[in-house]
Input
Amino acid sequence: MNNSTGKICIVTGGAQGIGYHICSTLAAEGYAVVMVDCDQEALDEAAETLNAPDLLPWRADVTKEDEMKWLFASAEKNGWNLHGIVNNAGISRNTSVTQLTLDEWNLVLHTNLTSIFLTAKYGSPLMNRGCIVNISSTRALMSEPDTEAYSASKGGVTALTHALAVSLGPKIRVNAVSPGWIDVSRDKKTSLKRTEKITAEDHSQHPCGRVGRPQDAASMVGYLLSPAAEFITGENIVVDGGMTRKMIYI
Output
């Protein structure tokens, strides 16, 4: 994994959706990429599609501490020059708060939030200088009904980001990207791939004039990992086409 640029980046939840495009963007920018995902089928498909020379698919469950310890112990054993960690893994359970089970609540928080604590705990000691990018969401700032677990987890991601930035700086920069409405319907494994019907009204809710694409978030991640962003840390950067700034009256 020590490629010619000497830059290695670990991306969790990297086999589908925004995570897949983050892996693709970083591979194109010369990173060696460790694509971490718990879905072996999606990992196999993504690795075959990307066909990048410095891509390592790694099956792991980010909610399991022993699996995260093993990932970073292997990185240390193999002498990886770890430049970046992108915490993209995330799930949702959109259920009425009165019907949401504690197990579902805990699974969302463990996947979306606790996993970031684990990668920081075991990954930051291996980084000489580098950057952590956490994928939060505009749901940390605004909500739809029945999104309590997801919204709470993403609010935690945003707060954990600035806490880590203060604790790990100046050696490591830590930032968050909060995507808005991103259409990932065609960026899933074959068995889940579909085409979502996006209407003109959907596009018009965005001052930029369109619903987001996975590349919009991936490009921001690439920027934050780059030397051009060396004076940016502790920030939550919203990538939503302006949707959270537009008042809509029904």
In short: The chain has a mean pLDDT of 94.
